[in-house]
Design goal:
By secondary structure, the chain is an alpha/beta fold. The chain is built from 19 helices and 35 strands. A hairpin with a 3-residue loop joins strand 5 and strand 6 (138-143). The radius of gyration is 30 Å and the shape is globular. The structure holds zinc ion. Residues 300, 319-321, 357, 360, 362-363 line the site of zinc ion (ZN).
Length: 772
């Protein structure tokens, strides 16, 4: 819904009344033009080039502009003191004057008014709805509630030229005349921030809260407890801070920190000022290893454990058979509720392995006493008991979709992360639902998995959910897990610009047809993000690398974003070469690609190990087809000359689940072969294991295959980074000549007994079969 009722172009500077204004304008142009970018050079936004995100439900463009200067008065009633002061602070921070306030009786020629009303039409009956009318004499924001007023103020912020956000102090500001009526499509619009895997200072959290407000998000889901760290001060259980807040890393260093109650109160107040709700998450019964390191008496076996210094899912969870565990958790929740006024308290509930419960006499007794038939029902008992406690204190419980297992407690709200199905199921049982499926909402995933466009295509309403249940889908959150996000720069580059896409989907409603328009508006936000010290990342992978054969082998770059240019450099060459045509692929070695946008280099250069070898582009016949989640380049993936990185999702790894690799290479003529090198990825947390057995066969007719005796198999030692390694195996044999070569690498088999996924099929990941 984007209704343009009238169009008008401000075509010249004539709209300015006096010579003095003329001069201010000219000086401003000189001042800001050094920064570059068209939007900064303008004095006010043309009504046809607004960059509002999220897009308002209704906008009517009008003639003229409103000027904010020393002559402007800001009026609001006492019940809007918070919103009025907030707006005054915003204007003052970018102006040479302090705006005059609350002179209600005086008739003025330039007035900003904030006002609660009761007579909104049917379509604006929403607590967050607002109406913004800008005319040459008056700028007015009306709403049914103070929250609606705040949303209107955020729209107003985006109607200034981007330079407004630069702290440059001007004598006056201009805003285009228009009328906006607006309200959100979904009531729950959030960001989950994991401050446990990595800890972020209070200032970073405050920066994010203001950015959430700017994009009309309304929820900060604050993930405060984990296996790897406890981040909230407790008076009752001080060892949660002395012990649980710190972990000893593998290199012996100590990592950690926590927010004091003072910090948390400041965070909550800052959020409240912007009408953002902070929902704390206290994980139970799983993801509790840090807490149990300090208080092992609340685990099943009482044994001493350390705060986790690895990523994954751990067996150490709270004992469900011990009443003192519940006393402990309830005391913590009392402290949490004292700090956080949110209606919802998130209790996690995800990824709780039942191993300890199944081997605990107390847990077994509890199941017997309560008539629970399995550990899932015991989890349900656990959650229900906590929910009852929260309800008694006037709060509601929200938890991850695992809380559905064993029966969902009465009033619980479900956050669906393992796809949309859990959310759909809960909605059909008339439970409220927040969506954050891994397919669209996980900001820790790389751009190769979830790019800007993919997030923009997200619809929180499951496709096949009957209309009568749609009202149970409250909205969505994007989840920012921080295992691999050590600092603010990484955090910014993961969250931005992708979160902005979700913000528009949730406020304006899903509409993939609007993507191009969104993309155009987004381009004008980068200068604002720059001003606000957001070190944003990219919208999509910069490029993908492709090789092909046309008389000779070539390497081609496929850009993933618009307006990019590239340079490339082979190792052992002095300077990068600008990329225009495909690169001749006539050597092996490291190839570095540099990406530029508007002549500014984006990020670090990307390196690829390229292998030019004898089997390149030979037809490959598969006995077991690759798994469709990890196809890499399909039938030529193993002979395209591109090797994989430590990122198993980089698009160069071909995956086989539970199957052997068994392929036959057709050389199209007789070739002599003396060795085969294959790389296998190993990452046991993702169930990816390397093979240990290999067989090689040769054939002249593709019918009869003879085994080849291997002289040796050389496993090459590899670096292990965060549990991931690339493992080369070199198979050597007597030099032989053959038309066809069959390669078998035997799958590792079931995951071993000591693994959390013991007994499950394992993955085999390979990038290339290098024949020499
Ligand atoms: Zn137990």
């Amino acid at each position: 819904m984007h209704n343009v009722l009238s169009k008008h172009n401000f075509s010249s500077l004539c709209a300015f009344a006096t010579l003095r204004e003329w001069l201010v304008v000219l000086i401003s142009i000189v001042l800001v033009s050094c920064g570059g970018g068209d939007a900064e050079n303008a004095d006010y936004l043309d009504v046809d080039s607004l960059y509002l995100i999220p897009e308002p439900a209704f906008i009517e463009k009008r003639d003229g502009y409103f000027k904010i200067s020393n002559d402007t008065y800001l009026n609001y009633s006492a019940d809007l003191e918070n919103e009025g002061s907030y707006l005054a602070k915003l204007i003052d921070s970018s102006s040479q004057f302090q705006i005059k306030k609350n002179l209600e009786t005086k008739v003025v020629s330039s007035e900003i008014e904030l006002k609660i009303v009761t007579d909104f039409p049917e379509e604006l009956q929403n607590g967050e709805a607002y109406r913004l009318i800008i005319s040459p004499e008056k700028l007015q924001i009306t709403a049914l509630t103070s929250t609606g007023i705040m949303r209107g103020i955020q729209t107003l912020r985006q109607l200034f030229v981007p330079a407004f956000h630069s702290n440059e102090k001007r004598e006056s500001w201009y805003l285009p005349c228009l009328k906006i009526e607006d309200k959100p499509a979904f009531e729950h619009r959030g960001l989950l921030l994991d401050v446990c895997r990595h800890f972020f200072e209070k200032e970073v959290v405050l920066k994010y809260i203001d950015l959430l407000a700017f994009y009309k998000m309304n929820i900060l889901h604050f993930h405060l407890t984990e296996d790897q760290g406890w981040r909230i001060q407790s008076d009752k259980y001080p060892m949660l801070n002395e012990i649980s807040s710190y972990r000893t890393e593998k290199d012996g260093s100590v990592y950690g920190g926590y927010y004091t109650k003072e910090d948390l109160k400041e965070i909550v107040a800052y959020a409240k000022e912007r009408h953002i709700i902070v929902i704390p998450e206290i994980e139970l019964p799983g993801h509790a290893q840090a807490a149990l390191a300090a208080y092992p008496e609340y685990s099943c076996n009482g044994r001493d454990i350390e705060v986790a210094n690895d990523w994954g899912v751990f067996k150490e969870i709270y004992c469900a058979g011990n009443d003192s565990t519940f006393v402990f958790l309830e005391n913590i929740l009392l402290e949490v509720m004292e700090i956080f006024p949110s209606e919802y308290i998130h209790i996690g509930g995800d990824e709780a392995p039942k191993f300890r419960w199944e081997h605990c006499a107390k847990c077994q007794k509890r199941m017997l006493d309560e008539g629970l038939k399995d550990a899932h029902e015991l989890q349900s008992y656990f959650i229900t008991r906590i929910e009852k406690f929260l309800n008694e204190h006037g709060r509601k419980l929200i938890g991850w979709d695992e809380i559905l297992e064993g029966g969902l407690s009465e009033n619980a709200t479900v956050q669906s992360w393992r796809g949309m199905d859990g959310g759909k199921l809960a909605a059909e049982q008339k439970h409220y639902v927040v969506m954050s499926p891994t397919s669209h909402c996980y900001l820790d995933y790389g751009l190769d998995n979830i790019d800007l466009k993919k997030i923009y295509s997200f619809n929180p309403i499951p496709e096949n959910l009957a209309k009568e249940y749609h009202k149970y889908i409250l909205g969505a959150e994007c989840n920012m897990w921080t295992e691999h996000v050590p600092d603010e720069k990484d955090l910014d580059s993961k969250v931005f610009p992708r979160m902005i896409a979700l913000a528009e989907v949730l406020w304006s409603g899903p509409d993939t047809a609007r993507y191009e328009d969104f993309y155009t508006r987004l381009q004008k936000h980068y200068v604002i993000l720059d001003f606000r010290n957001v070190q944003y990342g990219m919208e999509d992978v910069a490029f993908t690398l492709e090789t092909y054969f046309e008389d000779e082998a070539y390497i081609k770059l496929n850009p993933g974003m618009r307006n990019l240019s590239f340079q490339y450099q082979w190792e052992n060459t002095l300077n990068p070469t600008p990329y225009s045509d495909p690169i001749l692929f006539n050597q092996s070695g490291q190839l570095e690609i540099f990406t530029f946008k508007n002549d500014k280099q984006l990020g670090e250069p990307q390196s690829f190990i390229m292998k030019n070898h004898k089997a390149m582009f030979s037809p490959v016949a598969y006995k077991n087809r690759w798994n469709d989640y990890y196809p890499a380049a399909g039938e030529f993936a193993l002979v395209d000359g591109i090797t994989g990185s430590l990122n198993f999702r980089d698009g160069n790894w071909q995956g086989f689940w539970g199957d052997n690799l068994e392929v036959t290479l057709d050389f199209g003529g007789k070739k002599s072969v003396s060795s085969i090198t294959m790389h296998f990825l190993e990452y046991s947390n993702a169930w990816i294991m390397k093979p240990n057995q290999f067989q090689i066969y040769v054939s002249d007719d593709n019918q009869k295959f003879n085994p080849v005796e291997l002289i040796k198999i050389i496993p090459v030692n590899s670096n292990v980074v965060d549990g991931v390694s690339v493992n080369p195996f070199i198979l050597k044999f007597e030099k032989l000549e053959t038309f066809f070569l069959k390669v078998v690498a035997v799958n590792y088999g079931k995951m071993p007994a000591n693994h959390d996924a013991a007994g499950q099929d394992s993955w085999l990941f390979i990038d290339e079969i290098i024949v020499e």
